Amino acid sequence: MHDKLREHIEKIVPLTDKEFAFVSDHFSYKKYRKHQFLIQEGDTVKYHYFVLSGLLKLVYTDDTAKQHIVSFAMEDWWESDFYAYYTQTPATLSLECVEDTEVLCLLLEDYKKLCDGLQKMERFFLEKANFGFLGAQRRIISWLTSNAKERYEQLLKQSPSLIQRVPKSLLAAYLGVSRETLSRLSP
Amino acid sequence: MHDKLREHIEKIVPLTDKEFAFVSDHFSYKKYRKHQFLIQEGDTVKYHYFVLSGLLKLVYTDDTAKQHIVSFAMEDWWESDFYAYYTQTPATLSLECVEDTEVLCLLLEDYKKLCDGLQKMERFFLEKANFGFLGAQRRIISWLTSNAKERYEQLLKQSPSLIQRVPKSLLAAYLGVSRETLSRLSP
């Protein structure tokens, strides 16, 4: 299962076998069932996750207990409540399985050790962070410029497989529309 | 003027005089007047900017020529059309002065030289990228969970100085509301 991680990292930086052994030693494997939580609101966030298989939702729950989907993460994505992780403050988001999910887990201290011990990994995380920022910026532009129908069509174009896998109620909570509105938009 | 850059970087990583001289050598200084463009849509994006003084707006112009503000950047902020900069594709955003503005400019090749030549700078850019991502994520959560009035109040709380400096029409284009709606919200 660590092969997937190596393949993923090597899209950005090549690693020798020795270097990858060093990287791999800092991850631990976990498996979760659908509906299980990796992070619950209020938790101390121990890990930053690399998704090997399955699907996760990162959720913000508002004062009225309504759930808003901040992001989805499937194979090859990294996910966590990153603010809580980096600052070691209680989680304000929850991370929950939409499907049975396998992840590799990275402790904050091990993330730091990887960056300190192997500059290639710092380069890797820098590239991921830069493109993570650009993805979030693209979503902001989509909110500024598009209505619900257009946002749905953009998502359909960008992530067709996500739309196949995710229940309509969760898509609505990601797009910021009601379930009824989404039903009118999607065939 | 490079002192501001040093102070800013040293909030994250300490530098020796020799290291800072190396960093500083990779930046060039430019001054722009209000309404001048640093980047125009369609341009090749040469630089990534550190704002020394003044205020910039990063703008997405839609098919109907309506302007949407993706972000503002003032003192101590980094700004560019980062997608176009990293991928060296034509700019889809424009970057324009809201006030007279002084910047330090960093070429992509110099950004890479800094990261390659001094691991502390790669650490610095990684931290900035991580927190840039978190800022964008916070704005997404704000869009998902808040109405225009609440988004205005959040901005007032987070960036009171921005609200003082930015004309109401630009604030409206940042919050995604009409100028008339904003007038009803703000005293």
TrEMBL record, chains A, B:
Pfam (any one): cNMP_binding
InterPro entries, per database record: cNMP-bd_dom, cNMP-bd_dom_sf, RmlC-like_jellyroll
Protein origin, superkingdom: Bacteria
PROSITE patterns in alphabetical order: CNMP_BINDING_3
Residue ranges of every copy of the Cyclic nucleotide-binding domain listed in the record: 15-114
Designated name of the protein: Crp/Fnr family transcriptional regulator
Species in which this protein is naturally found: Mucilaginibacter gynuensis
